[in-house]
Amino acid sequence: MATFVDQVTLHLRAGHGGNGCVSVRREKFKPLAGPDGGNGGHGGDIVLVADPQVTTLLGYHRRPHRTSDNGGFGMGDLRHGARGEDLELAVPVGTVVKTSDGEQLVDLDQPGLRFVAAAGGVGGLGNAALSNPKRKAPGFALLGTPGWEGDVELELKTMADVALVGFPSAGKSSLVAALSAAKPKIADYPFTTLTPNLGVVQAGESRYTIADVPGLIEGASDGKGLGLEFLRHVERCSALLHVLDCATLEAGRDPISDLDVILGELAAYPVPDGQVPLLDRPQLVALNKIDVPDAKELAEFVRPELESRGYRVFEISTVSHDGLRPLSFALGEVVDAERARLAAAQEAAPRIVMRPDAVDERPFTIRVEGGSDGTYYRILGRKPETWVAQTDFQNDEAVGFLADRLAKLGVEDGLFGAGAVAGDTVVIGPGGGIVFDWEPTLTSTAELVTAPRGTDERLNQIGRATRRERREQYYDRMDGKAAARAELDAEREAGIWADDGSDGDDE
User: Fold this and answer.
1) Which entry of 4, 229, 440, 490 is 20 to 30 Å from 141 by CA?
2) What is the DSSP letter of 75?
3) 91 is in an annotated binding site
4) How far apart are CA 458 and CA 449, in angstroms?
């Protein structure tokens, strides 16, 4: 059973933030000593860490679902909730993190690099943190926001200085075993190597790694054989060593034709932007199995043609170890030269400038959408969406606080500018979001509202009368009273009733 996995899908769920607490401190002789609700704790993050001690993604293939801890709830007496513990996942150096759509997020190509793959939710504020001189005893607290939940793709690309390329059974695994202390599987049938094998070579003062990757056949760039499973692990190397079999018994094969096929497949494989094409990297040729008499003659025959193409050619035998020492030192020279070139290029690279967001940049956007059910307005932005997630819509005062925050952010003016009128449908967030009928009157001075805790008078649909309406109502009442008095006087004069209590019929 294979123990090497180089591609896996992780299903991540970061911890949710804890809710804030609504509490009022109570002491003897101080029945209402002020709010003391604590804040909720933040949810734990899920962090990917490049660890050189990890060589495979097998653990995540067996357990792809990972979850970090939630934040604790706030409590009274200003006790804040505990922060959720971060979950650190060790991955091999050379792991590329992508979205489920294939977009690259980060390349963990250096030991110790860290990447937050799933951010934890934000803890909600308690009513103690929400109080101010105008809102002395808030009757609400903010809810914790949910942590990020989704899938990420992990793809491992072997980190090696030299990649051994060649047809199956060309002797690549034997060469790794002869040059280093690695013990790859060696057998006399094709595609013995199903997973990359790494070995460390010490050649004088030079120390480098070599990778024996699965064998290459014609059409590998189109997915034949192990196809892309091979070529993906060649991307990282600084140099290529073509291992050519001089003792093959297959008809129609010879070292020159094998090399041409390999070069064609390497040329057809597209490398990521910014990397050197595979054929433009330093390349050496090793004519293997010269311990066989016929192979020795064939190596001497094809060597001049290979050298005429500009290759440095080495005749080797992994059985008798002939030619391995010169080859190891030649590879060390190539690797040292490439390391010096990369170091110089890194020093000359332009500096990364981090620029803050523009002051006048709007923190939200408003889109006019609609269909057969009519037009509605969708508000998108990190702040509005976060504030909606923090709001307890069962608490009227919390809804009024949300309205004030949106108004200060400029959402009210933005809706007016987009052509919205009172009663139009507004959606905050993507998808279904939070849907409500927009009423501009809900966005004014929540700090000045004197209403019972947990309520907001602005949500009362009965509008407050204006001064003119109150004056008209007063005059109507006065006119009604004057008419009633006139009617009573007329009845008294007519003798219908008298002030002494008689009904006017007594004689």
Assistant:
1) 440
2) B
3) no
4) 8
Binding site annotation covers 291?
A: yes
C-alpha closest to that of 433 among 387, 498, 388, 487: 388
| 68 assigned binding-site residue | no
Contacts of 472 (CB under 8 A, 6+ apart): none
- Over the stretch 76-131, which tens digit does the pLDDT of each residue have? 999 999 999 999 999 988 899 999 888 889 989 888 999 999 999 999 999 999 99
pLDDT in tens, 200-241: 888 888 888 888 876 555 544 444 444 445 567 777 788 889
The reply to whether 288 sits in an annotated binding site is yes
d(CA 257, CA 259): 5
**Yes or no: domain 365-459 corresponds to CATH 3.30.300.350:** yes
Residue pair 61/9 in contact (Cβ under 8 Å)? The answer is no
Look-up of token digits 């005062």: 397
Tell me whether residue 375 is annotated as binding: no
Q: Is 228 annotated as a binding residue?
A: no
191 is in an annotated binding site: yes
The ranges assigned to domains in the chain are 1-156, 162-347, 365-459
Identify the three-state secondary structure at position 152: strand
CATH architecture classification, 1-156: Distorted Sandwich (2.70)
